[in-house]
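Internal ticket #5521
Category: modeling
Description: The requester needs a full-assembly model to guide mutagenesis choices. All entity lines are attached below as received. Residue total reported by intake: 706.
Assigned to: D.W.
Attached entities:
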Amino acid sequence: MTNSSAPIVLHTLRCIGFAELSRVADAAGISEADAESHLIDLAVAGWATRSTGEFGAWGLTEAGRAEDARWTAEELTTAGTRGAVSAAYEKFMVLNPELLDLCSAWHLRPLDGATVPNDHSDSAYDARVLDRFVDLDGRADLVCADLAAALPRFARYRARLTTALDRARSGALEHLTDHMDSYHTIWFQLHEDLLATLGLPRR
Amino acid sequence: MTYVHPLATDVDGSADLLGAKAHGLLVLRRLGLPVPPGFVIDTRAGRAFLKDGRFPEALDAELASAVRGLEAATGRRLGDRDRPLAVSVRSGAAVSMPGMMSTILNLGLAPTGAEDTMGQLRTAVETVFSSWRTPRATSYRELHGIPHDLGTAVIVQAMVFGNRDRHSGSGVAFSRDPDTGKQTPYGDVLFGRQGDDVVSGESTTRPLAELAHRAPAVWGDLRAALHRIEQHHRDACHVEFTFDSGQLWLLQVRAGGLTGRAAIRVAVDLADEHLIDRRTALRRVSPHHLRLAHTPHIPSDGGFDILARGRAASPGVATGRIAVTADRAVRMAADGPVILVRPTTSPLDLPGLAAATGTITSRGGPTSHAAIVARAMGKPAVVGATALTVDPMTRCVRAGDRVLPEGTVLTLDGSSGEIMLGDPGTVTATTDAHLHRLLDWADTISGDRSQRSDEQRLTDAQAVVAGAGHATRRTSSPSSAPSMPALPPGKTTGSTGWGPDLG
């Protein structure tokens, strides 16, 4: 591939899975028009496919997945930052269990000796969970900065995580865990991206 | 001041002082149950370290003395090249915080000289003290209402090895089934492996019952130990254990860990067994347990085969045809309900999770990405069903010798973790004989047999029970109900018994 942001779109599909144009563009941090041009190029090359029907979502083909693996390996070699990305991944994996704890705490809460579904009637409890998300996000900031320094495309995650957290803080609490673009979903994609970039299996 | 206390039968101290884990181990010692020799550095030392950034005066000397005692008890020496003493160094706060703090295993196993190994032990103790302040532990305390200034004790014990030989292993055992309350021990065992592999969920565990034929003597000892602990505490319990060349060792004991339905059954059964009275049984069930018990579940005795059992991740029962990739789940969902079965999930599986009525993963725990997404979508899920192998190439799921091709109908229960072939249907608490008996007792005690909700019947009786004991205390009020720290999501602590939590 020669066009500079086409591989980014390919890799975005690799990390977010089947998604409609607007979500691809948002995740890649480019305009929908540009994203669509690249997606069409990727489809012509046999690397992406668009499902028919009402959703019309874009996704990778097996060949596209292989091409992405080749591209990310080359990207990392060219940048010469495998060590930095690996180190950032180790730091990410320290934060990951805590993030998963917090997401679980959003859904389930301890109450009088039982673990019950969080019905969100206790705003003080919800505020405590949100506070811990904010605290964790501050520490995630350092990991995101390391990653962006090693490979600039990772900077997009920082922007997206901030958007999700800001929405949650302004009252749209579904943006913590219960939305297509929730903090958890973006984190999950970042996790997938790190595994794909480093060529690691999911544990 | 004495900071270090041997794990010996004549040592007495509160869970506040020694930490709940050491307190539980001392109870086991007094019951004559096998606990590896060791000592505990108490929470006062932990708090002093957090405050000053160094060991309190006298702790070094006490630590050295305790190590000498452990050397004498084991006939081994720390740092010795011929007969090295290997120890575990574990956290143990006054309140249960499972998995939140550091553990150091096998210290001293590769000896580098006595001085040096003692230095390593000192550093390990500092590491565990400091792990009280990791952000994850801080988050846990925030969300569970645990004060931040308690600090942790540290338990140092002679290592026992679940990976020593083919007569060794480790596991977790509940005295009663934590999901159904049935009076049979339930749990997981890993043959030839250390206990931390069980807890981390990264190795394939086997059902506890396999101990019965693979290590019958250990199984017998374990059952007897669980029975002994139940008799003493008058409550269901669960233990972490290791067997080392056929010798059983208990490493931890906790109360309860029961889901809502199980908490009701266990309370009624314990009353029938005369371990507790009916008033105590009523106190041990909370209105939350009643509410949780009303979630529809798979019938326990419907004659259907349990294909596998994983961990409950998102409540509810789902029946559908197996799909082994997200793509297939999306396609098949057009023709009716689908159960997505995956080893783990990635963001690429999200359309499959959205299309499916329920999800099963063979790996991962109740706080995995899959569990979180399933709960976010409000769909039943079972995770960590380790007996299942997913083969996307041949489009099938294997369970032991059974091969289930894509399209096979199965049912999962996201509250109990059970997975069954076919469609066994569902039942709710309204048909639960144990619930009816408990509520009958409640009405007898409250003297009120009018039509009202189950929760009301329970809380009316609890008010009478509480009034008899403490005139001003109302157990129905969340703020004054006896609080017991919960285990991580997915498991619930089932009772208010045992005073401080044996966490």
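Resolution: model delivered.
Comment from assignee: DSSP finds nine helices and four strands in chain A.
Ticket closed.
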